[in-house]
Backbone:
């Protein structure tokens, strides 16, 4: 579970084509990183996968099923954004529990799932605190906890660490890699940080102007960039 295929996916806003026919197969349990310059369509692609944006053309297929017409909650996907809007008046527990409350899950199930997510994210001792009492890194963990409790097959991350300082980003890279191994879920991760891409990805997808410029393992792109654009982004500068 958690296999994703994009088939010639196109997105236009008015006259402006921002995703220009992207095809990609993401394997079950794979960690795929999307990189590319600002405005190249990374967030739009994620939002279409999540169901937050309609495709103009092409298919999105999850575990063999076309999901273009399914609403976000039916896709088995959770998305974590850069600006993680936590509820300031709620405790960490209640913030993480929120999606389960919306689903009207029973209280004992909620308690079990929230505590399990908190343990994975080292938030066990913080459950009764409010977001204002937490560091930026801890707040981002709460946002990830809120995704984990839904037990999605696929996680989408849109530049989740870009508001954190360099030291915290380095810690969170390690945390997220550990989380990926532990959960075994498929993860698609958008970043403009080359180090994140090189250290976290099974495969990197380099996007340029709504097209895929190259797909490959980090070292493959680094040593054998197919063009100067990829070389400039990821490749070994020679
Ligand atoms: P990235 O995440 O790679 O920086 P985006 O996917 O956010 O890029 O945006 C790709 C292009 O689509 C940009 O030119 C952006 O201005 C445009 N765009 C994104 N969302 C909308 C929208 N809702 N309406 C019109 N244009 C949009
Ligand atoms: Mg973006």
Residues:
């Amino acid at each position: 579970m958690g296999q994703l295929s994009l088939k010639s996916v196109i997105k236009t806003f008015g006259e402006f084509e921002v995703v220009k026919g992207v095809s990609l197969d993401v394997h079950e349990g794979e960690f795929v990183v999307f990189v590319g310059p600002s405005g190249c369509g990374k967030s739009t692609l994620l939002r279409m996968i999540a169901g937050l944006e309609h495709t103009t053309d092409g298919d999105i297929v999850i575990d063999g099923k076309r999901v273009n017409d399914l609403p976000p909650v039916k896709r088995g996907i959770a998305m974590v954004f850069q600006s993680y809007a936590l509820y300031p008046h709620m405790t960490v527990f209640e913030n993480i529990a929120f999606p389960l409350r919306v689903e009207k899950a029973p209280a004992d199930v909620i308690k079990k799932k929230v505590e399990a997510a908190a343990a994975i994210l080292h938030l066990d001792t913080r459950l009764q605190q409010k977001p204002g009492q937490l560091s930026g890194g801890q707040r981002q963990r709460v946002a990830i906890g809120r995704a984990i409790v839904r037990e999605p097959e696929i996680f989408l991350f849109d530049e989740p660490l870009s508001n954190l300082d360099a030291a915290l980003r380095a810690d969170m890279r390690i945390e997220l890699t550990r989380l990926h191994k532990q959960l075994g879920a498929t993860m698609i991760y958008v970043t403009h940080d080359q180090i994140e891409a090189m250290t976290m990805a099974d495969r990197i997808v380099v996007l340029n102007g709504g097209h895929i410029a190259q797909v490959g393992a980090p070292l493959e792109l680094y040593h054998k960039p197919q063009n100067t654009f990829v070389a400039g982004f990821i490749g070994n500068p020679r």
